[in-house]
Amino acid sequence: MAKDSLTITDNRTGETYEVPIFHGTYPKYASAIRTADLREIKVDDDDFGLMGYDPSYLNTASCQSSITFIDGDEGILRYRGYPIEQLAEDSTYLEVAYLLLYGNLPSASALEDWTDKIKGHESIPESINGYLNGFGSNAHTMGMLVGALGGLSTFYSDAGQLQEKEYLELHTARLIGNVATIGAFSFRHSRGMPYIFPNQELGFCENFLTMLFAEDGSKYQADPALIKALEVLFILHADHEQNCSASTMRGIGSGGADPYSSLAGAAAALYGPLHGGANEAVLKMLGEIADVKNVPAYIEKVKNREVLLQGFGHRVYKHYDPRATIIKKTAYEVFEVTGKNPLIDIALELERIALEDDFFVSRSLYPNVDFYSGIIYQAMGLPVDMYTVLFAIPRTAGWLAQWREMLSDKEQKIARPRQVYTGEDERAFVDIDKR
Ligand code: ACO
């Protein structure tokens, strides 16, 4: 009779062990054994027991989560069960942030309260302005953001208060509100422009565009099509389950660090070009290719392993990233307002050739979320060093949802992987004149 367990025979000893299998919502992606159960498998009583060895966590679930679901083979992404396509079409970033954090879509009055709460936390401590002013004009805005987020923990004396729910709510609203303003101020400082302070009368995305682009707060009017495009981009970037930066947020938070420091760590993880820094790398790549006629030569360089095709490939998706499909469509809506970004032609040709070429097909390499997003941001007038900041701002909601889920999960302890030691056995110290 079928049983939900694994029988393992240790050929060193002839012993057999039965290890239970448990399941999440979708057994295809969510059947697991507890690798701690393997510790029972020992040669003798002195043996530490067997571990799972999984460099870079290719096949290790670090938590049970009910926030985001990805079916990488089918190209499906859902937040709390809602398809990303429906959320991008019908929702707003703040509504989605609420959904990620609290598990359900808000009622009209809950959304109003939530929006007021976030809007009430868009102002950042004045000392952060001074801190940002200290950066050189060529400082990367992502470096400024990471520094300022970490710095927030020193400006909020209650940053380390994690026990009571009211503090968790305070930190959550503060970070979602503050991060947008810090991102906008980083941009303004790097361009030598005066800060435009948040306007509580404006929606989250409209206010953000105003803080970026207004010459004078009262005169700037963001185009509704650009506000809608930013809402869509922010929704698409809001969470993506246990990726590099979310795992960092959980990992730092598991040691009891305050959420401001944990979020700075998550943002630092995002900064890397293999993760959220890829949107910047894509634009640099497209600029380097410069013309559609140079695309075949670039593809050859990728196949010769000289360069990566930036914005392609994903650990989880072995199918078109559903976010890239939506972003590609959004690009044309933005171009209606801004004029076409000619780099889109190079990107489309890269995609066309790659999707027909066996090198990419056999490795299931498709465009990911970062492939088209930078083209939109550039059309909106934003410089490449802002693209990862524009990823970090909405991802703050996801990081906080993941962190709060971790805090409430009784199974979670301080994150601490094991290692398989491969170094020297014990040896005696050698005096310097004898080496
Ligand atoms: N260009 C060329 N070859 C690639 C690419 C790429 N973009 N991505 C993967 N490959 C190749 C690898 O060389 C490898 O080939 P091999 O098996 O012959 O050695 C194979 O495809 C599998 O790739 P891995 O690197 O093993 O896949 P992994 O899951 O470790 O990496 C990653 C995923 C980091 C996203 C990778 O695809 C990559 O570097 N992409 C480019 C950077 C990028 O766009 N990152 C953003 C990802 S989305 C996000 O984080 C927000």
Question: Can you describe this structure in just a few lines?
Answer:
This protein has about 425 residues and is mainly alpha-helical. The protein contains 17 helices and seven strands.
- Rounded to the nearest angstrom, the radius of gyration is 24 Å
Number of alpha- plus pi-helical segments: 17
The best one-word shape is: globular
CATH class of the largest domain: Mainly Alpha
**Quick one: how many beta strands?**
7
Biggest sheet, spatial arrangement of strands? 5-6-7
Average residue-wise pLDDT: 96
Number of domains: 3
CATH architecture classification of the largest domain: Orthogonal Bundle
The low-confidence runs, each spanning 5 or more residues with pLDDT under 50, are none
Overall structural class, as computed from helix and strand content, comes to mainly alpha
* CATH homolog superfamily of the largest domain: Citrate Synthase, domain 1
